[in-house]
Design goal:
heterodimer, A: alpha+beta, Alpha-Beta Plaits, 4 strands, 50% helix, 29% strand, B: mainly alpha
Chain lengths: 101, 267
């Protein structure tokens, strides 16, 4: 289950729903929202993950952006694991250099 | 670039730019801290240091630098050559690659991957959106980088393997040379026992069966008596050897151990 928090700027919730539908998020998904002066903070739960093309569509939509993404968070942990390996190895190299000198 | 130059450059960078007040020379830890001093560097700072140019091209030289260079040379041509060497671009990575990693990978080979890694690390730590495609690209880059920057897991090159086996052989030779001094009788016995089969085969090949049989008997005498110090057998064997050498006529090609003519004093 992918959980998303999305921000949308729209004149009304209907407009916001239209924008959401444009990127493949419709009434089939569980949607909650809060409206603050034309800004909609929308929580979405999807059984299917967003594809790369869905992400591209959101990126191209000027009135929409992703605040948080549960699957992106998982990917971030994997990225940081790899960065950890590289960064630690670089530190080892520096220590070796200090000893070698 | 001398080692001392590198050391100065390294600590200049660390002390002045990044970890001023934390580092003492020749120390990799800070009192009261769990992490080595290098842990105070961020990925971006490490990248900057690795890529910093240690050559004289853009650095401000002091009179002492020139004086040191002059004292290290004995002619103007060697001065020019050393100066040119110091003017050539050399990053800290290049030095580490040669002396610590023993790799030929240049800074430009890994700089792009490190930049990308840093960019994604920054995005990740600020919880920006990372797509599956971006993640796969970064994992691929990290996995490409890791073997390059890891010195311990690399395989020995053929040249290194050859050098290593050469060193083992040298040690083995040294052990052999030490042995006769310690146990001379056993050493010469072993040496004879090892050499005789070779001589026997050679004699067989060139068609000298009598000499071959003589050597077999000689070897038997060593085996039976344990040491060459069995004077009787040794004397008899030597006399037999002389007899065979003096003889122009080889009696039989099928000489076996049983058919060996035992020499007498009259022979």
């Amino acid at each position: 289950m992918q959980k998303l928090e999305i921000t949308i700027t729209a004149k009304s919730w209907d407009d916001a729903k239209t924008i959401l539908a444009g990127v493949g998020i419709d009434e089939k998904n569980k949607i909650n929202y809060r409206a603050v002066d034309g800004l909609y903070i929308v929580s979405v739960e999807r059984s299917l993950s967003l594809s790369d093309s869905d992400y591209s569509s959101i990126r191209d939509e000027p009135n929409m952006s992703i605040l948080s993404d549960s699957e992106s968070r998982q990917r971030i942990m994997e990225v940081l694991d790899k960065v950890y390996d590289v960064e630690t190895q670089l530190r080892k190299l520096y220590c070796m250099f200090l000893i070698w000198k | 670039m001398h080692v001392s130059d590198l050391e100065i450059a390294y600590f200049d960078i660390l002390n002045n730019k990044y970890t001023k007040g934390y580092v003492d020379k020749r120390s990799i830890s800070i009192s009261g801290k769990l992490d080595p001093v290098t842990s105070h560097l961020t990925l971006g700072q490490m990248k900057d240091i690795l890529g910093s140019d240690l050559s004289w091209r853009k650095s401000q030289l002091s009179a002492q630098d020139i004086a040191d260079l002059l004292s290290a040379v004995n002619s103007f041509s060697s001065f020019k050559s050393k100066f040119d060497e110091k003017m050539q671009e050399k990053t800290m990575w290049d030095v580490i690659a040669v002396n610590v990693l023993h790799t030929e990978k240049r800074w430009i080979d890994i700089n792009g991957d490190l930049n990308k890694l840093k960019e994604f690390r920054d995005q990740s730590t600020h919880y920006q959106i990372i797509t599956e495609r971006s993640k796969n690209m970064l994992v691929e880059k990290a996995e490409h980088l890791l073997p390059i920057i890891t010195p311990l897991d690399r395989k020995l090159t053929k040249v290194e393997e050859k050098n290593l086996s050469g060193a083992v052989k040298t040690l083995s030779d040294m052990a052999k040379q030490i042995k006769p001094a310690t146990f001379p009788a056993e050493y010469y016995r072993d040496l004879l026992k090892m050499s005789i089969p070779d001589f026997t085969n050679t004699l067989k090949i060139v068609g000298m069966p009598a000499q071959e049989a003589m050597l077999k008997a000689f070897r038997q005498s060593i085996d039976l008596n344990g040491l060459v110090s069995s004077n009787k057998n040794l004397l008899e064997s030597c006399r037999f050897m002389r007899t065979v050498d003096d003889s122009d006529d080889i009696e039989s090609d099928d000489a076996s151990d049983d058919n060996i003519k035992t020499p007498t004093a009259n022979d």
